[in-house]
Amino acid sequence: MKNQSKKEVSLKFRVTELEKEIIENRAKTNGKTFSDYARFMLINGEIIAISDKEKSILGGLSNNINQLTRLFHKQKKEPAELLNELKNTLTHLKNAYRRSS
């Protein structure tokens, strides 16, 4: 059910045409109006800050993924141990991005 309280204050900010289209598409995809979506994201969204050390770790994990991908292509098969290593690396990447600030 939508929040029926009267909205008395207006916020205004500038975006590019592309940013506007992206926001409108995301709102539509989530079944919300532009205002409802923007309000929800501004109240509930978060920015995750990544330290220089974490960026370095992520860079190393990215290099590992690239090396594993090259090895997959070179061998033209998916060795189980490499697949497990790739899954493990992806799990580390996901956990790094899920970390709350």
Give your account of this protein's structure.
66% of the residues lie in helices and 0% in strands. It has 101 residues and is mainly alpha-helical. The longest helix is centred in the middle third of the chain and has 24 residues.
Give a quick precis of the structure.
The protein has 101 residues and is an all-alpha fold. Helices cover 66% and strands 0% of the residues.
Name its key features:
mainly alpha, 101 residues
Largest sheet: none
Give the termini distance in whole angstroms.
30 Å
Mean pLDDT, all residues: 81
Total helical elements: 4
| Classification by helices and strands | mainly alpha
Topology:
Elements (H helix, E strand, L loop, with lengths): L16 H13 L4 H11 L7 H24 L4 H19 L3
Helix pairs in contact: 1-2, 3-4
